[in-house]
């Protein structure tokens, strides 16, 4: 079970890492240059722990990422996901071990954050201290505790990582309910609400894919029947999204045919708007290259590049 949770967290963090940074650091846009991309340094992290018996070896979900600041500097961010149900007393020491090994080998400034998924509200230390005969170490890191986050605030956020946190919080549902059928019903209602939220937002294809996988598999129903019901609803949601896109493509092709038959020239303006909308949709919801999008929509590559440029201006 822990291995599966690690895999799910790994997928979420890799796809919504930029959202995660913006979520934890509201001023991120004033610090980071996200246009230069994010590079995950998984090999660098693994190379620090060659001893199989090392109790501080990184988990699958742990991420070390290279980002760039607006002034061109390269910075590293360490994310440690503690998916174990019980808190380890040596946790702060483990975080310090991660830090000094990375710093010792790569000499990089590091911002570290631990995501705690345990269901209890008990506060956890964000500091490792050691002192002896005038020598002192005080290492402080960021701690983000899933159980402490308010559901209302998460639902109000337009950040995708907030949705991931809501999904993770579904694991705490029904802890005080003795009836398994009632627990399942509560979970089903909660998952349906989050599925509707995912469908209502304009989310890039890769991100929606991992978020739906997270929603589907992070917490399972006790009754297999409910598992099948919700899985069918997820598949239906995916199918509807594809059908809507195909209908839009058919519409633009129909308008083109109409123009070829001599219908009002003024409709060219309408075609261009539809082309822009479809181009925007493909740029944000698929991994297609700009050349592939131009080919699919039968528009010039320069048109796709122009729409992409406008999207970046709006985002900034």
UniProtKB/TrEMBL annotation:
<protein>
    <recommendedName>
        <fullName>Transposase (putative) YhgA-like domain-containing protein</fullName>
    </recommendedName>
</protein>
